[in-house]
Design a protein that fits this description.
The complex is a heterodimer.
Chain A lengths: L4 E3 L2 E4 L5 E6 L6 E7 L6 E7 L2 E4 L8 E4 L6 E5 L8 E8 L10 E2 L3 E5 L1
Parallel strand pairs in A: 2-11
Antiparallel strand pairs in A: 1-3, 3-8, 4-5, 4-9, 5-6, 7-8, 9-10, 9-11
Chain B lengths: L4 E3 L2 E5 L4 E6 L6 E7 L5 E8 L4 E4 L2 E6 L4 E6 L8 E8 L5 E3 L3 E6 L1
Parallel strand pairs in B: 2-11
Antiparallel strand pairs in B: 1-3, 3-8, 4-5, 4-9, 6-7, 7-8, 9-10, 9-11
The chains are: A mainly beta, B mainly beta.
Chain lengths: 116, 110
């Protein structure tokens, strides 16, 4: 099966600019996660969707970050305006409760964001 | 603060040796998982151990879980250069919330 797709792979922007990331999960996976991974640290959950509903967005900086999953399939994560400390890799993952490996998350390759 | 904390932060061993990484956590969990991340790539699931299990094996991997001490260990036996990566534990609570630790960077020298 195809894996989790993310684009772009790399993005360089100036601070105060806007940026958007896209994620297409594994077909049939109802749960989608966005993580922020700062260099040298573990991934930090930003938002979790179950189909097109938000399950957990407690660590999403809502003044500048937004995410949507309108049709319960692919998702976009937006930062507006970006700050220097947003430089990180943004990882998307998906999982499925209906598969035999429902607890396992499948990760995309990530988008490396550099804010100058 | 993050739920899982791996120890050591970095580990360097010779090929063929065993590598042991530890993970401690603070609250009740449904399961604990270990993931590997090669440089510049996404994470890959390695193994899952449920809260009612004490030990699991998968190939060269052995995971233990001690819920009384809120700790887990990952043992990689007969290490290879290809095992060089960062290893993360993730705790999963009953609400299916994943919390990753800061990771252990393993270097296996040929």
């Amino acid at each position: 099966e195809a894996g989790v797709a993310q684009s772009p792979r790399y993005k360089i922007i100036e601070k105060r600019q806007s940026v958007a990331f896209w994620c297409n999960p594994i077909s049939g996976h109802a749960t989608l996660y966005w993580y922020q991974q700062i260099l040298g640290q573990g991934p930090k959950l930003l938002i979790q969707f179950q189909n097109n509903g938000v399950v957990d967005d407690s660590q999403l900086p809502k003044d500048r970050f937004s995410a949507e999953r309108l049709k319960g399939v692919d998702s976009t994560l937006k930062i507006q305006p970006a700050k220097l400390e947003d430089s990180a890799v943004y990882l998307c993952a998906s999982s499925s409760r209906t598969s035999g490996r429902y607890n396992e998350q499948f990760f995309g390759p990530g988008t490396r964001l550099t804010v100058l | 603060s993050q739920q899982g904390e791996e120890d050591p932060q970095a580990l360097s061993i010779q090929e063929g040796e065993n590598a042991t990484m530890n993970c401690s956590y603070k609250t009740s969990i449904n399961n604990l998982q270990w993931y590997r991340q090669n440089s510049g790539r996404g994470l890959v699931h390695l193994i899952l151990i449920r809260s009612n299990e004490r030990e699991k094996h998968s190939g060269r991997l052995r995971v233990t879980l001690d819920t009384s001490k809120k700790s887990s260990s990952l043992l990689i036996t007969a290490s290879r250069a290809a095992d060089t990566a960062s290893y993360f534990c993730a705790t999963v609570n009953y609400g299916q919330n994943f919390v990753f630790g800061p990771g252990t960077r393993l270097s296996v020298l040929p």
